[in-house]
């Protein structure tokens, strides 16, 4: 018995030593960037967290503050289309965070909103303005959307992050928290050695990619996206892809529409503000997709449902659908992202920074660049 | 209880501590019995799910006890038949669907290996090799030993009994370190190597099976890559599991038999099976091959036929062993492929020994080109035969083979065989020349070096586990 206990102690001490050493190293390599209520979550790659879902999940505690906040949620087109720095520079009264996660459906966007709430007190919630960017590709049921062979069917990227470090456990009803949200920062501190090794592994892989292919990753950079265009064959491929990916024939998931309605309703009930944006896609895609019609109908229905509520505004940018402004069938190029960001900032400014809804209404009317509605 | 779950680590630690607290034999046997019950219980959500297993155990125990007093061949025949029928019924083999099935979900994990243990006890009790009277608790501890419950190794009762809760077992600090190292190495194989291979395999398989209009070369390449990755996954998953249970067994005074002995260094198909899943091969050798050869020899006593009877016995043995792996028709194909591999191998040996004589045949098999050629085709054959395990539905299997055609099978066969032969050739030439500087060896072998090495492996395991989106599972659990 004594030999077993001695060896167990030796193994434990060695592991603890190694773990602590890596933890210390992680602070040297990636000093914790103190941030007051905002972070550019789309810059996850430059951080210890590496990916947006991980950064959103592990780094969200900065959103626990009483300051006014504009929090963007949605899929990758929200991520690349709204530049946090641009919006922030035009929105003095609030901290802007873009928490959009690539490939998100409405359920995952709701999960992100729920995660923000987890780290906030009830009293701080009225300082939130959630900007929800939507398009038809987000209205896909989770069982269809998240069906890769390397994950359990229906688990979103946020679910994966929840389970990854044991902060949550799987139950039939979905993730159940093992670590209270108030302990999130302590939990992140505890897993820093793991994060730093993951980061090193990712960097090493990028190095190998660079060596073999001349580039770090298959993802296009901003300049490449700016120069990109789609051939007729690319367009057909894209349409085929979305026809397959939506999992339904010609219509979006009504279940996801319900999730969106419930989410907005809950937010408004708890005193938070909501900006719902109909994100434009290139005209060729909009006109050719069999899903656009049911999506537009759903967007109108949702907007109408909350019509008249002072904390709700819907926004459309349907005039911004020129093919050459998009790098593919969904994503805005950088020059268009600047326009999107300006327009959103113009909506947010009166809506978030002025307490009087009348002021917001006047401000919105004053702009001829966008179509927006506020409801009292 | 998954081997990679925190619950398993806590459970194992608790059992090891509880077992070693006292040297009392009854106490230790009680701890093992309770550990087995807890382990099996972890797979249940309702006690009713355990009833078929308990019924199967009860039937096996009754058969063993009957054979203790009635050693007639007919008693053994009836016993074996009743146990096999019960097993086939509970495992719900697709080709015995007419037997019907129980109207509720129940635990099937462990049944295959319990079957081997029960049959072994029955045969040995009847032959007199196992003479002691077996109590119900000893029977439970042996058949449901939590370390071997899911997938072996298949230990003989006599060997189990020699260490079953013994008061004193020789355990010094070196042995304990080796046990820890074995367990951690097992997890490295299981969580890092096997899971990474599975990750790659799970991406290739849908492309291979679902894509309709793949270019021919891409189809062949995908097939070769998927089949190779599955083999890597299977080997490291299974041998990693064995390292974990054998290492854990050391801490509980159990000397579990080895199940793998560098199988990919085998030069022939028959040698491969002496190195792969060894306890299963040995079980089939003792309880099917040997009796079958004896029976055939009694029917056809001519000495000239002896070698060919061996060929036939090999075919039957490997056919049964293959069919045992699954419950669908594809596993019959797997059995036929295994049987064909073994019997052709034996036939080749018989034919060339007859033609060249033993000495010249041996000289032939020692030639460098022959060694690497036979290594290549042995492994390539096994790798491709394993397709049956990852395409278990006959319709999918049919479609895949139809799309591949003869060229699509031969091409990957030659590519895998060639790559493997080349790998071994290069390895055998380079590895003997690699030496580690003495100062590095002394650091590695020091107390700190050894334990930091363990800790580094643990760190790697933790990191890879967090990188994976799904917990790795034990592949042989399904067989």
Describe the structure.
The complex is a heterodimer of chains A (376) and B (479). Residues 356-376 of chain A have low confidence and may be disordered. The radius of gyration of chain A is 22 Å and the shape is globular. Chain A has 2 domains: 1-31; 35-375, SGNH hydrolase (Rossmann fold, 3-Layer(aba) Sandwich). In chain A, strand 4 (168-171) and strand 5 (174-177) form a beta hairpin. Chain A is α/β, with parallel strands linked by helices and 376 residues long. Chain A is built from 16 helices and 8 strands. Chain A has a 6-stranded mixed β-sheet, sandwiched between helices. Chain A has a two-stranded antiparallel ribbon with strand order 4-5. Helices cover 50% and strands 11% of the residues of chain A. In chain A, helix 12 packs parallel to helix 14 (292-305). In chain B, helix 3 (51-69) runs antiparallel to helix 4 and helix 11 (278-299) crosses helix 12 (306-324). Among the domains of chain B are: 6-163, no CATH class; 263-432, no CATH class. The relative contact order of chain B is 0.09. Chain B has 19 helices and no strands. Helices cover 73% and strands 0% of the residues of chain B. Chain B has 479 residues and is mostly helical. Chain A binds chain B through residues 1, 3-4, 6-8, 10-11, 13-15, 17-19, 22, 149-152, 155, 160, 164-166, 191, 193-194, 197-198, 201, and chain B through 6, 13, 16-17, 20-21, 171-173, 175-177, 180, 199, 202-203, 205-206, 251, 447-448, 451-452, 454-456, 458-459, 462-463, 466-470.
Topology readout:
The complex is a heterodimer of chains A (376) and B (479).
Chain A (H helix, E strand, L loop, with lengths): L1 H28 L22 H8 L9 E5 L2 H6 L2 H6 L5 E4 L7 H14 L8 E7 L7 H4 L11 H8 L3 E4 L2 E4 L6 H7 L1 H22 L8 H6 L4 H14 L8 H16 L3 E6 L4 H6 L3 H14 L6 E5 L17 H20 L3 H9 L5 E5 L1
Parallel strand pairs in A: 1-2, 1-3, 3-6, 6-7
Antiparallel strand pairs in A: 4-5, 7-8
Chain B lengths: L5 H16 L3 H17 L9 H19 L3 H19 L19 H17 L8 H8 L13 H7 L9 H38 L5 H36 L17 H7 L2 H22 L6 H19 L5 H27 L1 H8 L2 H18 L1 H4 L3 H37 L7 H8 L1 H21 L12
């Amino acid at each position: 018995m004594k030999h077993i206990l001695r060896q167990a102690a030796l193994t434990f001490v060695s592991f603890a030593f190694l773990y602590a050493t890596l933890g210390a190293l992680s602070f040297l390599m990636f000093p914790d960037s103190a941030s007051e209520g905002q972070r550019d979550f789309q810059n996850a790659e430059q951080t210890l967290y590496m990916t947006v879902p991980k950064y959103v999940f592990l780094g969200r505690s900065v959103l626990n503050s009483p300051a006014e906040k504009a929090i963007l949620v949605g899929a990758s087109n929200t991520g690349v289309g709204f530049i946090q720095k641009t919006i922030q520079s035009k929105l003095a009264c609030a901290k802007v965070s873009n928490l959009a996660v690539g490939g998100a459906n409405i359920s995952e966007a709701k999960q992100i909103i729920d995660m923000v709430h987890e780290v906030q007190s009830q009293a701080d919630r009225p300082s939130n303005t959630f900007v929800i960017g939507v398009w038809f590709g987000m209205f896909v049921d989770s069982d269809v959307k998240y069906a890769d062979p390397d994950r359990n069917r229906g688990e979103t990227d946020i679910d994966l992050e929840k389970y990854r470090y044991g902060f949550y456990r799987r139950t039939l009803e979905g993730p159940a928290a093992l670590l209270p949200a108030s302990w999130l920062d302590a939990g992140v501190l505890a897993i820093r050695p793991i994060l730093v090794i993951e980061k090193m592994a990712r960097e090493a892989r990028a190095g190998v990619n660079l060596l073999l292919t001349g580039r770090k990753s298959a993802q296009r950079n901003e300049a490449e996206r700016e120069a990109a265009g789609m051939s007729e064959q690319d367009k057909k491929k894209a349409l085929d892809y979305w026809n397959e990916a939506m999992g339904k024939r010609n219509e979006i998931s009504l279940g996801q529409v319900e999730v969106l309605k419930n989410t907005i309703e809950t937010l408004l009930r708890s005193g938070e503000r909501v900006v719902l944006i109909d994100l434009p896609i290139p005209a060729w895609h909009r006109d050719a997709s069999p899903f656009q019609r049911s999506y537009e109908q759903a967007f109108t229905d949702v907007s109408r449902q909350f019509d008249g509520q002072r904390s709700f505004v819907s926004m459309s940018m349907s005039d911004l659908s020129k093919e050459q402004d998009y790098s593919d069938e969904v994503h805005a190029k950088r020059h268009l992202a600047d326009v999107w960001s300006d327009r959103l900032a113009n909506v947010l400014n009166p809506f978030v920074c002025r307490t009087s809804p009348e002021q917001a209404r006047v401000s919105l009317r004053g702009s001829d660049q966008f179509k927006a509605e506020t409801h009292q | 209880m998954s081997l990679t779950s925190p619950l398993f680590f806590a459970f194992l630690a608790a059992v090891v501590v509880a077992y070693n607290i006292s040297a009392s034999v009854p106490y230790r046997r009680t701890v093992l019995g309770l550990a087995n019950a807890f382990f099996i219980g972890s797979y249940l959500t309702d006690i009713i799910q355990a009833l078929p297993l308990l019924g199967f155990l009860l039937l096996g125990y009754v058969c063993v006890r009957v054979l203790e007093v009635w050693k007639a061949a007919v008693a053994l025949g009836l016993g074996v038949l009743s146990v096999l029928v019960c097993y086939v019924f509970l495992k719900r083999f697709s080709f015995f669907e007419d037997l019907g099935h129980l109207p509720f979900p129940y635990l099937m994990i462990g049944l295959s290996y319990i079957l081997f243990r029960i049959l072994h006890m029955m045969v040995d009790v009847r032959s007199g090799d196992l003479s002691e009277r077996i109590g119900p608790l000893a029977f439970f501890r042996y058949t449901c030993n939590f370390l071997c419950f899911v997938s072996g190794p298949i230990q003989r009762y006599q060997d189990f009994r020699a260490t079953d809760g013994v008061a004193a077992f020789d355990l010094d600090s070196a042995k304990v370190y080796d046990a820890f190292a074995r367990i951690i190495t097992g997890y490295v194989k299981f969580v890092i190597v096997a899971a990474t291979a599975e990750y790659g395999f799970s991406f290739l398989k849908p492309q291979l099976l679902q894509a309709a209009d793949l270019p021919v070369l891409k189809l062949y390449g995908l097939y070769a890559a998927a089949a190779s990755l599955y083999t890597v996954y299977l080997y490291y998953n299974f041998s990693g599991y064995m390292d974990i249970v054998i290492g854990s067994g050391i801490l509980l005074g159990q000397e579990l038999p080895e199940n793998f002995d560098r199988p990919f260094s085998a030069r022939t198909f028959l040698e491969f099976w002496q190195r792969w899943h060894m306890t299963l091969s040995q079980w089939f050798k003792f309880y099917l091959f040997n009796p079958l050869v004896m029976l055939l020899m009694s029917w056809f006593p001519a000495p000239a036929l002896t070698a060919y009877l061996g060929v036939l016995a090999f075919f039957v043995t490997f056919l049964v062993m293959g069919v045992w792996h699954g419950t669908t028709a594809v596993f019959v194909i797997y059995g036929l492929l295994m049987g064909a591999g073994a019997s052709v191998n034996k036939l080749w040996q018989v034919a060339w020994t007859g033609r060249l004589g033993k000495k010249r045949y041996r000289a032939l098999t020692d030639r460098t080109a022959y060694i690497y050629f036979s290594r290549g085709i042995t492994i390539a054959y096994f790798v491709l035969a394993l397709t049956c395990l990852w395409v278990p539905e006959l319709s999918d299997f049919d479609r895949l083979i139809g799309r591949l055609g003869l060229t699509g099978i031969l091409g990957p066969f030659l590519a895998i065989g060639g790559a493997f032969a080349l790998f071994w050739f290069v390895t055998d030439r380079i590895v003997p020349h690699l030496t580690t500087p003495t100062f590095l060896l002394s650091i590695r072998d020091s107390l700190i070096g050894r334990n930091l090495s363990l800790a580094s492996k643990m760190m790697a395991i933790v990191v890879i586990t967090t990188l994976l989106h799904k917990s790795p599972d034990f592949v042989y659990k399904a067989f």
